[in-house]
Design brief:
The protein is mostly helical. The protein has one domain. Helix 1 packs across helix 2.
Length: about 90
């Protein structure tokens, strides 16, 4: 199946001052206003997604996390009982 190159349209009402600012910024970078706005919106969207989805840890926290993965603590008695009940419930006879 051939790939389709579809486009969507985005419209926004902005103040004349913001329009002038965007136009000036685009001209300074030698871009069209559309290209400038699309690039800026794409960068902002990527940053927002990264902030929501990527967990950043300090070096100490990274070491603590790695140590917990390498040497996990023994399960508490309540967790052991929960595992036993789970195994019992899943037993198909």
């Amino acid at each position: 199946m051939p790939a389709t190159n579809s486009n969507a349209r985005l419209e926004a009402r902005i103040s004349t001052d913001l329009h002038s600012m965007l136009k000036r910024a685009a001209e300074l970078q030698g871009r069209t206003m559309t290209d400038f706005v699309v690039a800026a919106v794409q960068d902002a969207a990527q940053r927002a997604i990264e902030q929501a989805e990527i967990i950043r840890l300090s070096m100490g926290d990274q070491e603590c996390f790695a140590q917990a993965l390498l040497s996990p603590p023994q399960p508490a008695p309540a967790l052991e009982r929960a595992f036993a009940r789970h195994r019992k419930l899943l037993r198909v006879e």
